[in-house]
Write a structure and sequence with these properties.
Elements lengths: L6 H13 L3 H9 L14 H8 L4 H28 L4 H16 L12 H11 L1 H18 L2 H19 L10 H13 L1 H9 L8
């Protein structure tokens, strides 16, 4: 079968394109009349939406940040659910999730720039590893409320998901390997490298979560 007519490949391309829809950028542009790619961390994620829009309208900033998280998470969750109910094998579910996160982090619509992939990854993992993801969410919430540092909360939550997955599932269901999860986590950690450097230097800014 030709490469570009392979259903799996077509789905991966579709997942990448849908993942690349920059909801945070679009929402801030429409409702706050601000280009979040020019301010703050220049990320399209909810944290930067909150930080940038907050300077103009704190109440609107919170609403837009919440909607951004929901939409970004739905990108990942819905695409993986489509893959599952369409009868694709489990390995494809994971690859669809990874491609969606890649699309969010390196959006073709923003010249291959994007967000950090946390909310989209959460949506993917909520479908594939619901118990581990809920544990990660609890850790994210506690660390976020305690430190007020979004990147630290996100990375802590992701680490909790990884650790919990090895404890709950020594071998991930169906795929029998943690490689897909670790690859997805690597993308998110890689996008957080600047944040990690600032955390090490004690320069990472806090934000009201």
């Amino acid at each position: 079968m030709d490469f570009f007519t392979n259903p799996n490949v077509l789905f991966y391309i579709f997942a990448y394109l849908v993942g690349g829809i920059p909801f945070g950028y679009i929402l801030a542009k429409i409702f706050a009349k601000v280009n979040i790619k020019e301010y703050g961390s220049k990320s399209i994620g909810a944290t930067n939406v909150l930080r940038v829009v907050k300077e103009k309208d704190p109440k609107l900033a919170k609403r837009l940040a919440i909607v951004t998280v929901v939409f970004d998470a739905l990108k990942g969750a819905i695409l993986v659910l489509i893959a599952k109910f369409a009868g694709f094998p489990p390995a494809v579910w994971w690859m669809v999730g990874i491609m969606t996160v890649l699309g969010h982090c390196y959006s073709i619509f923003l010249r291959f720039e994007g967000g950090k992939g946390v909310a989209t990854g959460m949506g993917v993992l909520l479908v594939l590893l619901p118990i581990e993801t809920l544990i990660g969410f609890v850790v994210w919430f506690i660390v976020g409320k305690t430190t007020k540092i979004s990147s630290l909360a996100s990375l802590s939550g992701l680490m909790a998901v990884i650790i919990a997955s090895f404890i709950i599932h020594p071998e991930l269901p169906y795929v029998k390997s943690h490689a897909p999860l670790l690859l997805l986590a690597f993308i998110i950690f890689y996008k957080h490298l600047p944040n990690i450097y600032r955390l090490i230097r004690g320069e990472e800014k806090s934000v009201a979560l």
